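job 3f2a | input accepted
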Amino acid sequence: MNATTTAVTAAGVTPAPDRGQADLPGEVIMSARGLEMSFGQTHALRGVDLDITAGEVLAVTGPSGSGKSTLLHVMAGVLVPDAGRVDYHGGDASQDIAALDEAARSRLRLKEFGFIFQFGQLLPDLSALDNVTIPLLLAGTPRRKALAQAHETLGELGLSEHLDKRPTQLSGGQAQRAAVARALVTNPHLLFADEPTGSLDSLAAERTMEVLLNSVRSRGAGLVIITHDARVAAYADREVTVRDGRIGPGATHTVAGPSDPQHSTTGSRS
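job 3f2a | predicted structure (270 res):
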């Protein structure tokens, strides 16, 4: 049992099954160059360059309206930038996401990426199990297999006793963990989380972050977190700050996460 598996087990999260060949740690899995994005007269992104390496946890911080959520949506292929490119290297072949049509971007998001939102965005009329099953069914997984896989993923996140509950029957932390399970169930290479603990109290937020990071790291996946909360950013391996549509000079650095005290807290990452 390796160190990551030990840490995950100690946190009460069952390690995920091996998804096959993973991206090598330290390799750039996504690179953005010269991203420009405007909404009318508002410039949301002004020439952003950013790399994401395989298996890292990256926090993108900044004040409201700074462009950080727009950056996430562009890198995830939800929005198409006015200029620039987003090269994704985690699939079968490298490709510029910004150059793909909507159907191709949708397939890429479904197959390669996972998404976690501030308020979970679970469908209120479906059980936790059915909510987590949806991405698998959309990807063409047979229903019986999809249900088994969703059941297993919810179990990893400590929700085995809540499979049949609807979102309104779950606590805030439980509902957000179900949203995490939905994002993880397809074993994505990259997860994008937009203020994943913004609607939770401090204790539920801490538990959600620990479960999220342990689950991501046990899979070898990368995680990009948009947050204005310094406590959430402290969990990341690296942090960049966005201001006025630009990544601030010297803003990229290694930070010490609460779940990994071995991270360096001094100096900057070049």
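job 3f2a | The helical segments are 3-10, 68-75, 102-112, 128-138, 143-156, 172-184, 202-219, 230-233.
job 3f2a | closed
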